Amino acid sequence: MNQQRVTGTSAVTIEKKPFTADTVKYWMGNAVMYAVLIAGAVAMIFPVFWMYLNSLKRQEYAGGANMVWFPPPWEAKYFTTDHYMELISRASAKSSGGADNFIECSVNTVIYSTVGTALSLLICAMAGYALAKKKFRGSNVILMSILATMMIPGIMVLLPDFVITNFVMRAYDTFAGLILPTLANSFGVFLMRQYMLSVPDELIEAAKVDGAGEARTFFTIALPLATPMLVAFGILLVLGYWNDILWPMVMTKDLKVLQVALLNLTEIGSQRMGPVMAGAAISATPVIVLFMLVRKQFVQAMTSGALKG
Amino acid sequence: MSDAQQRKGLLTYKQHEKLATVFFLLPALFFIAIFSYISFLLTFFLSFFKVDWLKTFEFVGFHNYVKVIHYDLFWKSLLNISWYVVLTVSSGLVLGLFFAALMEQKVKGLGFFRVAFFLPMVVSAAATAWIFRLLISKGQFVPELVATLFNGYQIDFLGNPKLVMVAIAAMTMWGGIGYWILIYTAGLRSIDPQLYESAMIDGAGFFRRTLYITVPLLKPVILFLSITGIIRAFQLFAMVWLMAPYGEAAGGPDDATQVPILLIYNIAFGQMDFGYASAMAAALFFILLILTVIQGKLGGLTQK
């Protein structure tokens, strides 16, 4: 039997494919496929490459008569880091006559993204845990009323959120005002609840028998077991906060995040694109690096995000 | 020895657990109640008032809604965004499926192609808009390329009201195509590969397999992508802000890039009329709701 199989496979491999019109068609089809994919990939990467190239290109070669489209990277005379320096050495927006300092904006963006993500994850995980693992009357009603808010488009709550944070909480231009309204993440509650359903009841019971309280059970059993979902949803949240623009724009004046600072570069942009590309690079590089580090989880997170439909 | 009789401090175990449940749920419910539910209702509430600089409130009934209906720019912005929706959703549906299906063939270097197509997803709208503004400005890469390829033809994306929305849709697709590919890929992997094998034996090529097997089986995915595609398209804001001619307010040239969010933003934070802006937001909400319901119905019909 075994012998037969071996001879069977070797017979197939030895047999050479005849060179026919089908083979030609197959290879042509393959060539077209790769040509299309490579053309697509170049079109996708080129703008990112162009951003970095122009952020480093000296102003005199960036346009007009002296335009050099693709300066050789080893010719130092074409390149400069001045555009970056200009943005990070500006006087702070808080001082009179100042502009958005990009280091200050980066710090603000990092705080907004990390604090927002951490708090949002904790709040969603807590609610998801209660909805998945605690049996109580009305839990379905609560879940449904949370899910229903996913149908509300962001623009419907933008103005009232602004009114509440400004005139009720008096939190204009503060991190509290910026972050608190973003924590109501019904989709996150849903995702965490779905994941917490898979946490075995026995483990939770065992922890209680060992004398662990409610909080301890949550933090030492449920939360660690939900790590994959926390990572996936955390990636979505970080990217969402980092690239958020409309809410920080209406909510802050001096406490600028990078995206809002980018919008304010139009005056420079009308004269020189170098500093603008440097600003875009400062805002895009951290998320590009993050993407390269966690691209597998990123893909999973984006796909799981589609399940809400 | 039942749980209820065991005591922990002053409370029984049952009471203790109930309290814990409330404690776990409270933060999320608190924020959702205030910033989703109350906010949602507050939009309607505000829409019945004339709000001046958020200092004086005057009840005006449906006056704001009447104003919205008679505001030409609102209809113009809906027309603009519809054009943008058509451009992005149709190209997303077609190109997304095309590239997703291509990448599901036996492709060497798939990892590289996936990185290339997914990477722009993480770049923000503002950065994307700036990069493309540089690329399509006069004397820059794309117009020069067009001039070289087409006998010196001068193309002006930013000054031409007909072209600027096309350019914005193109940069949206640059950043967004990865998402369409991703969702399509998940759908494609749920299709039984035997269907393709038997089609291949029958001699069906890539395009025919896609058209006659993939598309009919992916109807739910296509429906999901088009509904969410429309909702995402209506959020267009940062890109039009950065496509305006320098020195002018966003929306130009010729109001070709006036979009609903931009109008609402300008009325609320330019004229400080939150009532009028809320009425417009509410109108937009109803339009989106109707669109979603119609699409859901159409999707349900075609599935039968």
For the secondary structure, the number of strands of chain A is: 0
Instruction: Give me the secondary-structure category of chain B.
Output: mainly alpha
CATH superfamily of the largest domain in chain B: MetI-like
> Strand portion of chain A, in percent?
under 5%
Uncertain segments of chain A: 1-13
The total beta strand count of chain B reads 4
Order of helices and strands of chain B: EEHEEHHHHHHHHHHHH
Looking at the overall shape, the CATH architecture of the largest domain in chain A is Orthogonal Bundle
User: What is the average per-residue confidence, as pLDDT of chain B, rounded to a whole number?
Assistant: 89
- Topology pattern of chain A, helix = H, strand = E: HHHHHHHHHHHHHHHH
Nearest-angstrom radius of gyration of chain A? 27 Å
What best-fitting shape of chain B do the alpha-carbon axes yield?
globular
**Percent of residues in helices of chain B:** over 70%
Oligomer: heterodimer
Give the largest chain-chain interface (CB within 8 Å). A-B, 87 and 92 residues
Structure class of chain A: mainly alpha
Count of helical stretches of chain A: 16
Span of the ends, CA to CA of chain A: 52 Å
- What is the CATH T-level topology of the largest domain in chain B? MetI-like fold
